[in-house]
Amino acid sequence: MWWPCGWEAVGVAYQPSPSVAGSSLPPLSRPQLAEARRVRAVELFEGGVSNAEIARAVGVCAESVRRWRRVWEQDGASGLRRRAATGRPPKLDDTQVEMIRAALEQGAQAHGFEADLWTLERVGAVVTRATGVVLSRASVWRLLTGRLGWSLQRPERRAVERDESEIARWIAHEWPRIKKGP
């Protein structure tokens, strides 16, 4: 078992170099940046550079470089490449997620709901109707926040009878009259 140290433990935000900052290239994701560091380390391994120099060059601790070198010596450069995520595959593929996105963007009323408000239960019903896949509330939440990028929005609760002009008049005239103090 290995313990992360240095920059890997706290995570370093990607800072593009000045030549890349103005380009149209998208910034590297965290896994892509980590793999790029390992690929650079392999180039330096092959050049005979010491572990300490490699650690400084790629911005990680020497223990990470030692671990990478052991993997490189045993499995070669392919041993340091990113691997596909393990675990259960998602129930919905990317095309189904895009179908759901399009369905949700039509609004809740377009799907027969009384108010144009999405709840986890309503989204789950739309997912089942659109794809035939039944998701738990937790899975619907992960779909909305993780794969669709939505966030929780709570409707503002205001009385229907609210009269803005009367409120403004009261604040301007009544409140100063009854307010205590200087």
TrEMBL record:
<dbReference type="InterPro" id="IPR025959">
    <property type="entry name" value="Winged_HTH_dom"/>
</dbReference>
<dbReference type="Pfam" id="PF13592">
    <property type="entry name" value="HTH_33"/>
</dbReference>
<dbReference type="InterPro" id="IPR009057">
    <property type="entry name" value="Homeodomain-like_sf"/>
</dbReference>
<protein>
    <submittedName>
        <fullName>Winged helix-turn-helix domain-containing protein</fullName>
    </submittedName>
</protein>
<feature type="domain" description="Winged helix-turn helix">
    <location>
        <begin position="115"/>
        <end position="173"/>
    </location>
</feature>
<dbReference type="Pfam" id="PF13551">
    <property type="entry name" value="HTH_29"/>
</dbReference>
